[in-house]
Amino acid sequence: MTDIALTGVTKSYGSTHVLDSVDLELHAGVTGLLGPNGAGKTTLLRILATVLAPTSGQLCVLGNDPTTAPGRTACRRRLGYLPQETGFPRGFTPFAFVNYIAALKEWTDREARHDEVRRVLDQVGLSELSTKKLRRLSGGQRHRAALAQALIGDPDLLVLDEPTTGLDPEQRASLRRVLSAAGHDAVVLLATHQTEDVAALCERVIVLDGGRVRWQGTVTELVATAIGRVWLADEAQPGALASWRTGTGRFHHVGHAPPAGAELVEPSVEDAYLLLRGTAADVAVA
Q: Secondary structure of the chain: what % helix, strand, coil (to 5)?
């Protein structure tokens, strides 16, 4: 059974289509959502998180229709959502904040709820800071508190908007471990600008641009589209969509037509994404 299905989903504000006839299927595993600013990523996540209703189209989330009141309630009981920005009640600690969200999620047994709060705070590495005021924590630490609330109850659907924002490399690696484990049983969809997170963590990837799905498939399949189109040279060469000087002093080029005899190299997710987006004005780097 398909865990998530969108058919012709459109979200419009007046004559502007933020999402335009989106068709998607999502199953258990970790899927990355890439796209430029304004592509519609956050709108798509908010629809899946039952924050917004689509203007048109059909939506099935974990066997429920979230456009109905009973369907929304059923979805929210099995959902974890990390928005791009989280507001924290004044004066709360990480423990108090996550405990508050757990209570809203119908964890009525106090002892069981507190055990779950401690579990998710430990997952994100905040156990030792659980009683410190949120306002005294760093931005990355507050972001991890926001992530902890999304993990309450091991949800069947995790919807995460820029989950690695503000995290240092060690914290990013720890988050990848948590999300990878969650993806064994749950549908995990994360929107990110970090192509290295997609390469390191995701099994599948969706590229959204202009409110439309430009590409969807496995990460390996996306990278394969760039084979033979990425090369190194001692000098910057014309005709590339993007080029930059690397730490070795040589120039990395991404383009549709490498020059004859070019020193081809293995492409990355970022290379494939730049090629897919495809216009020099968007991606050229001196």
A: 35, 25, 40
For the chain, count helices (H), then strands (E). Answer: 10, 13
What residue type is assigned to position 5 of the chain? A
- H helix intervals, the chain: 41-48, 69-76, 94-104, 110-123, 139-150, 169-182, 195-201, 219-224, 269-277, 280-283
DSSP-assigned states of every residue in 135-168: GGS-HHHHHHHHHHHHTTT--SEEEEESTTTT--
CA dihedral 278, 48, 25, 184 (to 10 degrees): 100
| Distance separating alpha carbons of residues 155 and 157, to the nearest angstrom | 5
pLDDT digits (tens, 9 = 90+) for 65-120: 999 999 999 999 999 999 988 888 889 999 999 999 999 999 999 999 999 999 99
- 258: helix, strand or coil: coil
Mark residue 168 as left, alpha or beta (left: phi above 0; alpha: psi -120 to 50; beta: remaining). beta
pTM of the model: 0.90
Give the pairing type, strands 79-82 and 204-209. Answer: unpaired
Phi, psi for residue 245 in degrees, rounded to 5: -80, 130
**Structure tokens given for 219:** 């990460």
What are the pLDDT digits (tens) for 194-221? 899 999 999 999 999 999 999 999 999 9
Residue 265 neighbours by CB distance under 10 Å: 12
